[in-house]
Alanine--tRNA ligase
Amino acid sequence: MRTADIRSRFLDHFTARGHTPVPSAPLPTPDPTLLFVNAGMVPFKPYLTGEVPAPWPRATSVQKCVRTLDIEEVGRTTRHGSFFQMAGNFSFGDYFKEEAIALAWELSTTPVADGGYGLDPARIWVTVHHTDTEARALWRRTAGLPDARIVDRGDEDNFWSMGVPGPCGPSSELYYDRGPAFGPEGGPAVDEDRFMEFWNLVFMQDERGEGHGKSGYPILGELPHRNIDTGLGLERMATLLQDKPNLYEIDETRPVLDAAAELTGTRYGSDAAADVRLRVVADHVRTALMLLADGVSPTNEGRGYVLRRMLRRAVRSVRQLGYPDPALPALLPVARDLMACGYPEVAESFPRIAEQAYAEEEAFRATLQQGTTVLDTAVAKVRAEGGTALPGAQAFQLHDTYGFPIDLTLEMAAEQGVEVDRAGFTALMEDQRERARADARARKSGGTGDTSALPAVLDASGPTEWLAWEKLTTRA
Ligand code: ATP
Ligand code: MG
Ligand code: MG
Ligand code: MG
């Protein structure tokens, strides 16, 4: 079953059951806590908190998501894309746990000929919050699941909140057993590659107060209007239904992987390290395409930085695989052709997208060789002096002069067994930002032109917190 078919079956299933279909929001979100939409519920937050009355009691969507927290997982696990599509059904004070479970079970297990996904019910496992005996009973009753395939989990995995006071509640995840070829027996607690999560159901039933972390806050009581928020990964379902080993090999990504393999003369499946690189290329090229389509431009901070990192890491990966010439002109159109049917904007604005992407590749190519030499020399020096970490000033120079995103420097240094003094790097970045602000202020008081917007632009581009792009992890 093609990914496009998985998408339309989801929307059809829920539309036929009283849900209003809502188009995907763009990836860059006005939500101040996030760089990008990272779950289907993000555009619906005001309805879930009750801040704004929901226009419909039930909604369904397939939302474009980018999860920067998962970038490092790409190509290494079988199931994490930096871009992915989350299909969801939502109830705003309408149906609750029993119907949410029944709806998910029905779509998952209804035979393909009758409009469902046709998963084998005997291979589905679920997790529930250990206190949620109601969910356990419902899985037993509605789905006929035996207790052995209903796994209790704690707050860390199966309790959802927005990270701030407001609605919260237990969640329940659906997993599919892909069989012994993928890992050991024992269920999702033992192996999440063999037992792959494909759908997450959140039961918003309580209200939480101030506090931090996954459980460091009081539960104030039950919500007057309970909500349902679910998220199913289209790529994960495609991995299952297309019987692929991982989500980089499904119909919407594999052709990019193949194009990269052909370009570089690499045979996919012959070398584990090269395979990871090919999967990274397939993933990053698609993510970059979708970000460019939504108006993000490559820059040194915030959203633009994530895009720059995608493009530059893809370019470097192709180069490491042995292809020295510009690669994006051979890869980006392949991704466009795969994504354009679901997202016509990708085809419509492709001339602009291509121009931006190819210019970024050219700019990187101009400094990559030199920067690599600088890095290699610096690493050799660190080693010769018996050190373990590249000085922050070196990483800053690579960033400032050679356009090396810090993550790239980290990755390249790590490949040679050396760390990077990140604190030193961050301090230098902060100095530079402060100087830019002071300059802007000086220019403003000197009265030469209106630069009053500059500090605001700098502020809006956000702090440079490499590992904390998503200060708030929203789980679907
Ligand atoms: P995992 O535990 O596998 O990392 P998750 O619990 O973080 O997944 P949720 O936040 O529950 O994921 O998101 C809802 C659904 O979206 C998941 O059940 C999965 O199908 C899909 N999904 C989440 N992250 C990714 C990703 N990086 N790539 C592809 N699909 C994803
Ligand atoms: Mg995750
Ligand atoms: Mg999970
Ligand atoms: Mg989950």
